[in-house]
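Example record

The entry below shows one chain as it appears in the dataset: sequence first, then structure tokens.
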Amino acid sequence: MCNLYSLTSNQEAMRHLFAIQSDRTGNLASMPGIFPDREAPIVHVVGGKRTLSMYRWGMPSSQKALYDAATKRAEKLKAKGKDVDFDQLLRMEPDKGTTNIRNTKSKHWTRWLGPEHRCLVPMTSFSEHNKAAGGDIWFAFDEERPLTCFAGIKVEDWTSVRKIKTGEETMNLYGFLTTDPNDVVRPIHPKAMPVILKTEEERDTWLRAEWSEAKDLQRPLPDGDLIIVAKGQKGDSA
């Protein structure tokens, strides 16, 4: 599961590569370490224009996941002799967000697979953690960490609880797809790798095509397209 990536290219490079027509992000600083539940840039289509906006990383978790978590919390409270209003407990159950989406056949995700919910997630490298291999292992196209993007999905104006102390919040959220790892990623993370869109044709298809066509993009990169560029650090400062 990819829960750390970097975006160290400048804003003008993003505007050029992704053909941005509207930029809502202000002045973006380099982001050598992007973690879950943080804001980061996405590219989406607004009124027919490719738009760069800041969204929060972590799509809504499934109702089942939240129900199961609330049930466990209720059981602990009852064991302490406390009264439990389960409906209220469920409503306020913290949802840290789902960063990576793999099972696109799940009913939870199918509602957000149309073009209106798709986005590009700019990045220059991503990390998978493997303690035995040296900690955070960073992957990129080459040592220069050229700009590219993940295949993302998004949702606007979603109200949920991230933390009990902050209560309900209404947020714009994103996540990105994963798929089987290629031979470069598999020794470090055998379960999955992010879906990366390398060409403008792929990016255009992802943003505009129906799912019957876009779903074919959920596949690993060829083995020769990635290398390991760093080990051990929490942020990629290249």
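Notes for this example: DSSP finds six helices and 14 strands in the chain. The longest strand covers residues 148-161.
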